[in-house]
Amino acid sequence: MRELVLLMAILSCLTHAVVSLNCTKDLHHLADKQMYFIICTTTHAVPVRDERICGSCKSQNDEMVASYNGLMQNCSDLYKDVNRLNIVITTHELLEGLWNKAYCENCFESGGHLWNNFTDLYYSFLACNRSTNAKDICTECKSHYLNMNDFYTDLDKSQEGHICFDIQDIMNSTRVLWSKQLKCCQREVKMTTFLTSVGVVALLPLLLFYGTAIVLTKRREARHGLLNDQEPELDAPSTSQLITAAILSTPSESSAAVTANTEKIAKLLTRPEASSDSSDSDDEPAIKPKIN
Fold first, then answer.
1. pTM for the full model?
2. d(CA 30, CA 68)
3. Each residue's pLDDT tens digit, 70-84
4. pLDDT confidence of residue 130
5. Is residue 165 a contact partner of residue 99, using CB atoms and an 8 Å limit?
């Protein structure tokens, strides 16, 4: 019985040693694949002859992912959550995050259909540039550029901005070539248009002032009740002039009538007051009380 237990312990140790040895080999294998992926992405940071990250490093990324998955399937107990740094998993997440951040898988979706269509338009544009005189490129190759740009714009909307980095990089470099290097997007400002704009801006305050003055004048004329050709009553008579006109328009009496009226008024003023017992002829007689 003791011999069986001892034999099982020995086998367990040997198995653990073999597993550890295999896991160490798998770990080194993963490190090599990660190294190749880093070298590929770093050397293609700036594209050379249209060789970019996603298209050039696809195989390195696939091999790195396969090696990591194999290590985690057989040796996860040795390398997963064994310390605070968790180096194996952290390193893989950083490298895989670079690939995902570039949306590289978008280049290979649907069998690379989008990638092939875009590159066909791109190579057509390049062929036009190479076969056309420099003076005529902006005219002859405009349709090729617009087709490529329209395809990218539609792709950007449909993918919600999650476009493969290679396609983004090609489109950006093509736009720089078209606008800055070939200078096909320059917008020359005509002097006539510029002077017209300046004139309109300079005359605008003056037109506004005169427009306001005209409106106010029309309102003032309407307030004074002007009709058709009637002159505006801007010189209306003053109050003193109106009083004078009213006095002059009053009918005058003869001098004899004025003298008679004056004498009547003088007699009334100089007439002595009547006694208290006498009553005015116009007063009503006093009513005497009846005596029974």
1. 0.57
2. 6
3. 999 988 888 887 788
4. 92
5. no
Do 201 and 143 meet the contact criterion of CB atoms below 8 Å apart?
A: no
**Integer Rg of the chain from CA:** 56
Distance CA 178, CA 156 (A): 20
Q: Which two tokens stand for residue 83?
A: 């310390």
Residue type at 256? Answer: A
Q: What digits encode the pLDDT tens for the residues 41-77?
A: 999 988 766 788 999 999 999 999 999 999 999 888 8
Q: How far apart are CA 101 and CA 41, in angstroms?
A: 13
